[in-house]
Task: structure prediction
Amino acid sequence: MSLEVENIQHPQIKNMNLTICDLQYRSLHLHPEIELILILKGSATVNINGNTKTFHEKEVVLINANELHEIISETETSTVLSLHILPQYFEGYFPQMTFIKFEDNTLVSKNEGMFIYTFCKLLKTYLSKDPYYQLQCAGLINIMVYDILQNCAYHQIYNYRLQQTTKQSRLLSDILSYIEEHYAEKLTLTNLSEYFGLSTSYLSHFILKNLHRSFSEFLTYTRYFNAKALLMNSELSLTEICYSCGFSDYRYMNNAFKKYSSCTPNEFKKQIKTNTIPNSKAGILKLYSPQEMLNTITEFVKNNHLDQYNI
Result:
């Protein structure tokens, strides 16, 4: 389970990137980029700051910079197109983007078909690397962002609040990383408070406010997810997995699986053997190559008759 500030690379154009992947689960994480996710196939349940909503094919998810989120599509593998873009991308002509926070994570557009087509054309342009493609990408991004600003509710975070938000995001990331590093040990809130030099009371409220789970609930969830990954990707026995993930006894792990998977670890293991659950540790089953992305988005545009919006 990777709990971190995701380090997203921008190999072609500074401050932005585009990817397509198949996924079942993306654990809680945050990143400094604004993210737009277009569901190309399947459906995905997205948990953003404790608010959960399921998105279906042709729907777009809008995630603010430094917004804690996870993506779950365990019953059916989802294929998603993601645009990550740093607010600094707009710095030279629209610096206000740094201070904007959207109030809803569901895209609202007066012409959703046009928006989705523009998103697909952006990927095609990005992949083409034709002369001046960077300018074409900038134009398409500006069309999309203009649409979002015109139709989606947002408010502006002023400098002091932005600094506070950034500071809290950094602390949250450090807490998540510490839990990931030490979840297999006997970990308590007191250990955490001593490490960060904060009171247990403050830390308890901070975790509950930002993770929407108590420290003990989140620790159990972390142990559960890592145990699940080992069940899917190792030959360890259930007892070995139990103790290597920090569960004090098998009953503790059994209860966690019943709570989060609605089945016991043993039942989950049997499902894996019968291939009813795809084998994946990270939850990202496949990161598409440039040619695979082009083929996928071309087929998506054709199947959904989006060429009518050709611009």
Remarks:
- Confidence is low (pLDDT under 50) at residues 1-5, 276-282.
- The radius of gyration is 21 Å.
